[in-house]
């Protein structure tokens, strides 16, 4: 197996006969491999989230190399006897951060009997621990990033994860207009979280205390049923109607908020009746002769361009202006990539709790997610993470577990963006993409991505007048482009 990534290293460690223990700078145990139980007789659960000093106080171990490395800030090797009567050789090495401070301690734990049988020298143990510390440096960084600073707005299933400036602006605007009764229309692609924004607006208003939040998906009903579902009907209004009649969604939302999702799917006839309710604050049930006064706030949402639909005669212009009092646009996930690591962490924690699984997404996989275009937005991201959680048997989930479209989708997206600059060469570039994606079973993802990156950089530089222009198209700094060109030149040489 190639050790192309931190994730690969961690996967190897899961099956290693040695055990590895990582603690923070205070001695709190952050990570331990499953083999610790066989080597020490002490379970993983007994180690995790405890301080190494607790193991000493409880006499589970006779001494600690980790504690020695913390105190001396240098490598320590010692013999340890566990509560199960097992003798070990432990080698602990400090991990120093860029500022020169001790950040973590990585401890390699080996059964002394095996150590003696193999005739290994202490220097060999130290070398192994140093290699593990170096390879796991990225994992430790991701462990730090697991406390990625983000905000959770809302509660329960309706929390909004906010890290990016773009989503921060959406939340701020929603909270501000949520306090008043102005009609809101939320624009955004499928899966961006329009309903969450609507619920946040409702929760910020006094209506949340006296009325309900009622959601209606305008695309989920046939046009023949939509009117009776929205406005209700009187007894005997049509064949199959309840003898007692039925209140519609407008009446159910009285005093609260009615959320009309996919508002663009309403027929022109239903649009006219909705306009009447917005103007007069009263409605007629189907088959009814008397108006019913209602007190509701309307929040609508759509993934369509309503202004274009008005021009095409598919949406009433007067209704558009009634709805478009306060427009809020939720940007797609590809335009707020800062939210992706926070969403990954939030969803992972949620799924760990829901399915009682101790699984983790590798740092390389999270970086890959940041580059992927996510046409299905946040909903697609959550669905993919859940799929990986329940289908991948390994504890560490890596890019190797992704299917073709997810492994290479970001490469094709890059090709499409490049095509905007130079459409005449798109056919050649498309062929390059297809050539690389066909290598999925022959090469590692890292190799494929590296080859494609070099081809894309070369093509972009050749098509531009300056390197500055090429760097801008590629979305990288000029210094990053220069380093890549130097590397390509060195490999050719």
Overall geometry = elongated
Helical proportion, percent range: 40-55%
Q: Order of strands in the sheet with the most strands?
A: 2-1-5-4-3
Number of domains: 4
Report the end-to-end length measured between terminal Cα atoms: 29 Å
**What is the second-level CATH architecture of the largest domain?**
3-Layer(aba) Sandwich
Class inferred from helices and paired strands: alpha/beta
Q: How large is the count of helical segments?
A: 24
CATH superfamily of the largest domain: P-loop containing nucleotide triphosphate hydrolases
CATH class of the largest domain: Alpha Beta
Here the CATH topology of the largest domain equals Rossmann fold
Return Rg in Å.
30 Å
Percentage beta strand: 15-25%
Which stretches are low in confidence, meaning pLDDT under 50 for 5 or more residues running?
A: 1-6, 119-123, 131-147, 418-427
* Arithmetic mean pLDDT: 80
Give a quick account of the main beta sheet: strands, pairing sense, barrel closure. Answer: 5 strands, antiparallel
Commentary on this structure:
This protein has helices at residues 6-14, 36-40, 44-47, 52-57, 65-72, 112-118, 122-135, 137-145, 165-178, 194-203, 207-210, 223-231, 249-252, 268-280, 306-311, 317-323, 339-355, 363-371, 377-391, 404-421, 426-437, 445-463, 467-474, 478-492, and strands at 19-24, 29-32, 76-81, 87-96, 102-111, 151-153, 160-162, 184-187, 213-217, 257-261, 282-283, 292-293, 297-302, 326-329, 360-361, 396-397. It is an alpha/beta fold and 493 residues long. It has 4 domains: 6-135, Beta-Lactamase; 152-329, P-loop containing nucleotide triphosphate hydrolases (Rossmann fold, 3-Layer(aba) Sandwich), CATH 3.40.50; 334-402, Helicase, Ruva Protein, domain 3 (Orthogonal Bundle); 406-492, no CATH class. The strands form 5 sheets. It has a 5-stranded antiparallel sheet, sandwiched between helices. A 5-stranded parallel sheet has the order 9-10-13-8-14. A two-stranded antiparallel sheet has the order 6-7. A hairpin with a 4-residue loop joins strand 1 (19-24) and strand 2. The longest helix is centred in the last third of the chain and has 19 residues, at 445-463. The radius of gyration is 30 Å and the shape is elongated.
């Amino acid at each position: 197996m190639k050790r192309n990534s931190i994730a690969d290293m961690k996967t190897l460690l899961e099956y290693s006969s040695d055990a590895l223990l990582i603690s923070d700078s205070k001695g709190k145990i952050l990570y331990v491999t499953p083999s610790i139980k066989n080597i020490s007789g002490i379970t993983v659960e007994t180690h995790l989230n405890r301080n190494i000093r607790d193991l000493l106080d409880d006499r589970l171990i006779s001494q600690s190399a980790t504690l020695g490395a913390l105190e001396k800030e240098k490598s320590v090797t010692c013999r340890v006897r566990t509560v199960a009567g097992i003798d070990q050789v432990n080698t602990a090495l400090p991990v120093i951060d860029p500022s020169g401070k001790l950040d973590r301690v990585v401890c390699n734990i080996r059964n002394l009997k095996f150590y003696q049988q193999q005739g290994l020298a202490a220097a060999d143990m130290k070398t192994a621990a140093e290699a593990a510390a170096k390879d796991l440096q990225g994992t430790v960084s991701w462990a730090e990033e697991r406390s990625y600073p983000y905000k959770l707005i809302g509660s329960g299933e309706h929390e909004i994860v906010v890290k990016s400036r773009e989503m921060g602006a959406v939340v701020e605007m929603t909270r501000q207009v949520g306090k008043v009764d102005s009609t809101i229309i939320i624009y955004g692609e499928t899966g961006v979280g329009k309903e969450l924004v609507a619920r946040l607006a409702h929760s910020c208003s006094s209506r949340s205390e006296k009325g309900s939040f009622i959601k209606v998906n305008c695309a989920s009903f046939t046009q023949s049923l939509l009117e009776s579902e929205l406005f209700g009907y009187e007894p005997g209004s049509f064949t199959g109607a309840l003898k007692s009649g039925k209140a519609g969604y407008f009446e159910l939302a009285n005093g609260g908020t009615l959320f009309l999702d996919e508002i663009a799917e309403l027929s022109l006839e239903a649009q006219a009746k909705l306009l009447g309710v917005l103007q007069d604050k009263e409605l007629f049930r189907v088959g009814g002769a008397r108006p019913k006064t209602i007190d509701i706030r309307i929040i609508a949402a759509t993934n369509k361009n309503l202004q274009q639909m008005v021009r095409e005669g598919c949406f009433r212009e007067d209704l558009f202006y009634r709805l478009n009092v306060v427009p809020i646009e939720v940007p797609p996930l590809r335009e707020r990539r800062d939210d992706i690591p926070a969403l990954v962490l939030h969803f992972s924690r949620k799924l760990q709790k829901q399915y009682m699984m101790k699984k983790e997404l590798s740092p390389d996989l999270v970086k890959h997610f940041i580059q992927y275009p996510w046409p299905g937005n946040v909903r697609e991201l959550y669905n993919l993470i859940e799929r990986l959680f329940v289908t991948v048997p390994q504890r560490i989930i890596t890019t190797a577990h992704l299917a073709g479209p997810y492994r290479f989708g970001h490469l094709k997206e890059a090709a499409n963006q490049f095509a905007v600059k130079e459409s005449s060469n798109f056919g050649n570039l498309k062929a390059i993409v297809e050539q690389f994606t066909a290598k999925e079973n022959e090469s590692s993802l890292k190799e494929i991505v590296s080859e494609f990156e070099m081809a894309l950089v070369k093509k972009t530089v050749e098509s531009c007048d300056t390197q500055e222009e090429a760097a801008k198209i590629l979305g990288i700094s000029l210094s990053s482009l220069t380093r890549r060109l130097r590397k390509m030149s060195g490999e050719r040489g």
